Automatic annotation (TrEMBL):
Belongs to the MGMT family. Its cofactor is Zn(2+). It is found in: Cytoplasm. Binds 1 zinc ion per subunit. This is Methylated-DNA--protein-cysteine methyltransferase. Zn(2+) binds at residues 36, 40, 67, 70. It comes from Paracoccus aurantiacus. GO terms for molecular function: DNA-binding transcription factor activity; methylated-DNA-[protein]-cysteine S-methyltransferase activity; sequence-specific DNA binding; zinc ion binding. This enzyme catalyzes only one turnover and therefore is not strictly catalytic. According to one definition, an enzyme is a biocatalyst that acts repeatedly and over many reaction cycles. It catalyses: a 4-O-methyl-thymidine in DNA + L-cysteinyl-[protein] = a thymidine in DNA + S-methyl-L-cysteinyl-[protein]; a 6-O-methyl-2'-deoxyguanosine in DNA + L-cysteinyl-[protein] = S-methyl-L-cysteinyl-[protein] + a 2'-deoxyguanosine in DNA.
Length: 351
C-alpha cells in the first residue's frame, strides 16, 4: 500500500517524531526486539539498530514486539493510555459533569490532557464530555420528556445552559425540536463514537460524528437548503442507516445501499460520487480522484470537496490519502481514518 522512502528519510522522521508517517511506517529496534511508531517518545535508537516496516503486521511477522508506550498496533489516539481511559469514562457515564478537579483526582494533569485531546480530536476532554451530555439530553427530548427533566439527566446546571447548548448546535432551542419540519436528526452509536444522521423519509442528508467541529455549519447548511428546521426523531432512512453501519462495522457489509441527498455544488457532488466508487479495502490519492472525474488538474479542489463531505463513511472520504501514502487529514479525526482503513482491509478484493 505504501513504498517506504530510504532509511535516511525515515530515521530523520523518527528523530523529529514526524506525524506524517503515522500509520504508514514503523521502526523495529534490533537491540530491544520492540517496534514503535515514528512518533514514539521513547529514546531514539542508533540508525544501525533500526529496521523499517510499512505495517504493524510486518513488524510482528519479523519477530518484533509492540511498544508499550506508543501502542503501534492500534490507532493513533490509542497510543495514549490516558486518552483511551478517559474516552471510556465518558462512554460509561455520558451524563456526568466532568471538571478539571476530577482529572486531578484521577492522577492526570489537566493541561496535558487538554493538549492530548486537542491533538487527537480537535477539542478538549471537557468539551467532549459536554457533547456527550448534550447527546443524552437530545435523546430525552426526542422521546418526549420535559425539557427540564432532560436537562437534569444531562447534568447541566441550568435549563438556560441546556437550551443554549442546543441552540448553538441546531440554531433553535430544544422545545422547537419536537415538531420536525421535514427533516429529523437522530443519534447513532458506532465503535468510533456517536454520529448524527439527518434525513427525511426519502434520503439521508447528513451523517457526521457528533464531536466534529464543522458539525454546526453542516447542520445549518442542511437546514437552510431544506427551508425548514431540523427536528429530533427518527425516520425509515435513519433507522436503515443505523442498521447498515452496524453491519459495516461487524464485517458484513462492504457497500452501503442508502438513498443519499448530499448538500453541495455540482463539482462537490461529482467528487463525492467518485468516492463511492472506491471499493472498501482500497485507497486513492487526490490526484487519482481528480483524474477519475475527468479534471486531472483539480487536485486541490478535490481535496477541498473531500474535506467538506457531509455524509461520512457512506461517502468514503477516508479512502483518499496523500500521493506518498500518508494518511493526511480527516475532518472526523485522523485516528478514525486509521481505524476505518484498518477495518476495511477485511473487504479488500470483495466485489
Amino acid at each position: 500500500m505504501f513504498d517506504l522512502p530510504d532509511d535516511a528519510v525515515l530515521y530523520a522522521a523518527l528523530n523529529a517524531c514526524d506525524p506524517a508517517y503515522e500509520g504508514r511506517a514503523f521502526v523495529g529496534v534490533t537491540s530491544t526486539g520492540i517496534f514503535c511508531r515514528l512518533t514514539c517518545p521513547a529514546r531514539k535508537p542508533r540508525p544501525e539498530n533500526c529496521r523499517w516496516f510499512a505495517s504493524a503486521e510486518e513488524a510482528r511477522a519479523a519477530g518484533f514486539r509492540a511498544c508499550r508506550r506508543c501502542h503501534p498496533g492500534g490507532a493513533t489516539a490509542e497510543g495514549d493510555a490516558a486518552v483511551t481511559a478517559l474516552r471510556a469514562a465518558i462512554e460509561a457515564a455520558p451524563g456526568r459533569r466532568w471538571t478539571e478537579t476530577d482529572l486531578e483526582d484521577m492522577g492526570y494533569d489537566p493541561s496535558t490532557i487538554r493538549r492530548a485531546f486537542r491533538r487527537h480530536f480537535g477539542m478538549t476532554f471537557l468539551q467532549m464530555a459536554r457533547e456527550a451530555r448534550l447527546r443524552e439530553g437530545a435523546r430525552r427530548v426526542a422521546g418526549g420528556d420535559a425539557v427540564i427533566e432532560a436537562q437534569l439527566d444531562a447534568g447541566f446546571d441550568s435549563a438556560s445552559g441546556f437550551r443554549q447548548a442546543f441552540a448553538r448546535l441546531f440554531g433553535h432551542p430544544p422545545a422547537g425540536m419536537r415538531v420536525a419540519g421535514g427533516l429529523v436528526a437522530d443519534w447513532i452509536d458506532t465503535p468510533l463514537g456517536g454520529m448524527i444522521a439527518v434525513a427525511d423519509q426519502n434520503a439521508l442528508h447528513l451523517l457526521e460524528f457528533t464531536d466534529r467541529k464543522a458539525l454546526k455549519p453542516q447542520l445549518a447548511r442542511v437546514s437552510r437548503d431544506a427551508k425548514g428546521r431540523i427536528g429530533l426523531g427518527s425516520s425509515a432512512v435513519t433507522r436503515q442507516t443505523s442498521d447498515q453501519l452496524a453491519e459495516f462495522f461487524a464485517g458484513g457489509r462492504s457497500r452501503f445501499d442508502l438513498p443519499l441527498a448530499p448538500h453541495g455544488t455540482d463539482f462537490q457532488r461529482r467528487v463525492w460520487n467518485a468516492l463511492t466508487l472506491i471499493p472498501a479495502g482500497e485507497t486513492r490519492s487526490y490526484a487519482e480522484v481528480a483524474a477519475a472525474i475527468g479534471q486531472p488538474r483539480a487536485t486541490r479542489a478535490v481535496a477541498r470537496a473531500n474535506a467538506t463531505n457531509g455524509i461520512a463513511i457512506v461517502i468514503p472520504c477516508h479512502r483518499v490519502i496523500g500521493a506518498d501514502g500518508t494518511l493526511t487529514g480527516y475532518a472526523g479525526g485522523l485516528w478514525r481514518k486509521e481505524k476505518l482503513i484498518a477495518a476495511e482491509r477485511r473487504y479488500a478484493g470483495a466485489a
